[in-house]
Amino acid sequence: MLTAAGPPTRADWIHVGMELTGRQGALSGWDAVRVMGIGSPRAPSEEVLVLDSPGRHRVAGLVRIRPTRRRYQSSPLPCEHPELAFVPIVSAARAVADTAFLYRTFAPVRALTTSAIQRRLCAPDELDAELRSGPRNHSALLRRALADVLDGAQSIAEAEAIDLLRTIGAPAFEVNVPIIDQNGKLLAVADLLWRAARRPRGGQPGIPLRRGRLEGHHPAAQRPDEPRPGPAALPAVGDPGSWGAVGAGCRCLAARPSCGAG
Measuring CA to CA, which residue among 219, 253, 248 is closest to residue 233? Predict the structure, then answer.
């Protein structure tokens, strides 16, 4: 059953799990998300995880067979897969949830969850359903990461920016807001949008969006004699009234107030 000479690989243990479940099980956990192209390159556990509906919980070598009453969907990998041809694999949402439960630190769970959403492998409500139906033990990290997603974050950078802005007490903002003109054409998507930063006609923005804040430098850490960075928002095009909006890496834009945002 070995797929290569030498000690058994993770792929070998996955095939062991398939045989032990009578080919009725499905691959989940870290190995499943790696097949999907997401997840940390370092496994949170030496064991591979195979789900099985009936039977008992058991460990054989480095494969864990976990019976579950939670329904799951699975589909076989294509015959072209170099190591796991025809191996059934669970849905992305289930694989992400099962992997998240194995971690004891937040960063890899946040990266995994936001990557799955960003690549459209699953939807936030699917992850929420897995969280609600799954075990409560070790679910805190997934719950926290899912809060990022429900806040609108579609990448780990956006999730970290949201955390930073809330930590420094930034005014209320929205995340990933479409900027649409009066003809319904999508002009851009603002990573961060401050509706309260609407520029009065002929005046300055009500709330300056300073580059230092997005880069993680708290204004309080700046010496009083140092010049402060100027507002990050670009001048509005056309009507001087604008909504303050900031894109990733302090890429800034402004949309006319007559446009619908979001």
Answer: 253
